[in-house]
């Protein structure tokens, strides 16, 4: 079977400005967790936006599940660091929203909401409003909402950036468990090297002089059943962080590069 996502020779930019990205080749296999690491402004979100069909590339191809992406890609879920829960809707209604928008029959919505609220440990919060939730619960609700229509690929753009370190670690464990239980494929953008190592099967580093490209790739060999609580003490963890740190340093744009 072909890869779930195949990006080849991708170039992208905005308006009349020069390309932000060029020559980006990235393949994501089904069930894989790939993180994109890179300096601020290098074009990480732009890769996700081209994959989601929200931005039309200037050159190259984005093939999702064997078909070129043309228009909005409805096969992906997208979670950002923004809190986009509707404050006037209860959590169960917020999570059900994508199903209503897709006109999923009413009888199917209830069981799916139940499944995803359970998966993300939110059953007790079903009837609460977003303002009554902690930061971590809101993140879990947003994750449930991004996953409830069972997209094959989850795009995550710094989804935990606003959380404190302890909550972030909790969310990492929740996310890995959810990935294991659902088999969803993830393309994850972060600035945080430790987060990329903890979560991913593979990390790609984007950067270099404008237009940016992929400058480094690193396999993360911890497997699907990694023990998140103790992973940071794994003898290979620090070495992987060090290698990625070095790659990230060399991915920084030269002084005076337009950003
Ligand atoms: N809608 C837009 N219009 C014009 N320029 C844009 C737009 N979106 C992004 N850019 C520019 O494209 C470049 C890449 O942006 P992008 O958001 O992809 O970077 P990033 O690597 O995700 O950055 P960060 O880590 O800071 O979120 C930046 O220089 C940004 O200013």
Automatic annotation (TrEMBL):
Domain named ABC transporter: residues: 5-231
Q: Which SMART domains match?
A: AAA
InterPro entries from the entry? Answer: AAA+_ATPase, ABC_transporter-like_ATP-bd, ABC_transporter-like_CS, ABC_transporter_ATP-bind, P-loop_NTPase
> Superkingdom of this entry's organism?
Bacteria
Q: Which SUPFAM superfamilies match?
A: P-loop containing nucleoside triphosphate hydrolases
* Record GO terms (molecular function): ATP binding; ATP hydrolysis activity
UniProt keyword terms in alphabetical order: ATP-binding, Nucleotide-binding, Transport
Q: Which Pfam families match?
A: ABC_tran
What is the designated name of this protein? NitT/TauT family transport system ATP-binding protein
């Amino acid at each position: 079977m072909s890869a779930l996502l195949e990006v080849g020779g991708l170039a992208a930019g905005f308006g009349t400005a020069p390309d932000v990205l060029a020559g980006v080749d990235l393949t994501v296999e089904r069930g894989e967790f790939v993180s994109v690491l890179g300096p601020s402004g290098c074009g990480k979100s732009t890769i996700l936006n081209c994959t989601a069909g929200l931005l039309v590339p200037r050159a190259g191809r984005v093939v999702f599940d064997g078909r070129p992406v043309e228009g909005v890609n409805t096969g992906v879920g997208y979670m950002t660091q923004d809190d986009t829960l509707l404050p006037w809707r209860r959590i169960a209604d917020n999570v059900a929203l994508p199903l209503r928008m897709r006109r999923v029959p009413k009888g199917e919505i209830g069981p799916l909401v139940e499944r995803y609220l359970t998966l993300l440990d939110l059953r007790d919060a079903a009837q609460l409003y977003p303002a009554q939730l902690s930061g971590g619960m809101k993140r879990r609700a947003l994750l449930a909402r991004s996953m409830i229509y069972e997209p094959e690929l989850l795009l995550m753009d710094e989804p935990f950036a606003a959380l404190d370190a302890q909550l972030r670690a909790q969310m990492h464990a929740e996310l890995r468990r959810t990935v294991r239980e659902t088999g969803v494929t993830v393309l994850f953008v972060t600035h945080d090297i430790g987060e990329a190592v903890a979560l991913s099967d593979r990390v790609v580093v984007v950067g270099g002089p404008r237009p940016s490209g992929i400058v480094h790739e690193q396999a993360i060999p911890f497997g699907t059943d990694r023990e998140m609580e103790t992973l940071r003490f794994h003898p290979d963890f620090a070495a992987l962080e060090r290698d990625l740190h070095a790659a990230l340093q060399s991915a920084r744009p030269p002084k005076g590069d337009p950003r």
